[in-house]
Amino acid sequence: MIKFLYVIFMNLFRAPYMIPKMRYQANHPEKYSEQKRYALVRHAITLMKRTGHIHTKAYGEENLPKEGGYIMYPNHQGKYDALGIMITHNTPCSFVMDKVKSHMILTSEIVDLVQGKRLDRKDVRQALPVLNEVAEEVKNGRRYIIFPEGDYVYNNRNRISTFKAGSFKCALKAKAPIVPVALIDSYKVFNSFTLGKVTTQVHYLKPLLYEEYKNLKTIEIAKIVQERIAKVIEEYSPITC
Q1: To the nearest whole number, what is the mean pLDDT of the chain?
Q2: Which residue(s) pair with 71 in the sheet?
Q3: Which is deepest, 6, 77, 106, 196, by most CB within 10 Å?
Q4: Cα–Cα nearest to 74, from 200, 212, 178, 154
């Protein structure tokens, strides 16, 4: 949280220019292509990284499907998670996030620029159509980030909570590749007490294709994805107490 406030403070002078620009492009997708809006989001992330002394290393980009839509399922560590993925994911992608948290300044602009989905976790009836929309868009070639843990633990030190099986129904309905993504030290950026330089890791793992999981239950799919991510985290950054 300390670094989050620091980054916001250091970029206040840019706000009168950047926020209106982001809001305008988000409100006029007919004028600005998905690539153009995504580029603006990545520019904003780059500015935050520069002022916050944040470095993000990506591994396994060759595992990302070259064509068609897919869903990335990463472990969840904090506010920087989706940003760390988008800054290393060259082609446009979007994400699903908690509706309450999505209306913060800058966060709201980013969600709208990538046409992300706001999910009310307390309203199951609202969640279903949102996830159905994601599935349809993925069928049509879009790429999404869904956090199967739902929420994160502050300063979680690379620990993983149980993945929720329901979040994988989107992939089943879309018959799309599932890309496990292992995030390491992402919690240090905005959800720890660290103020100095921070280096995070984004590992794109081999995708789980529809043919491989179509006969599995969602609880089985969740377990497979969670175990693959946990293995990478253990290998590259053993969980600390």
Answers
A1: 94
A2: 144, 178
A3: 77
A4: 178
- Angle at which helix 81-88 crosses helix 34-52, to 10 degrees, equals 120
Residue 158 tokens read as 């690379």
User: What is the pLDDT at residue 113?
Assistant: 98
Q: Which residue has the tokens 């976790």?
A: 121
Comparing CA positions, the residue from 97, 103, 104, 108 lying closest to residue 41 is 108
Q: pTM score, two decimals? A: 0.95
Residues 6+ apart with CB under 8 A from 231: none
For 131, 140, 227, the CA distances from 110, given in Å and listed in that order, are 19, 22, 30
* 29-44 pLDDT, tens digit each: 999 999 999 999 999 9
Specify whether the backbone of 236 is left (phi greater than 0), alpha (psi in -120 to 50) or beta.
alpha
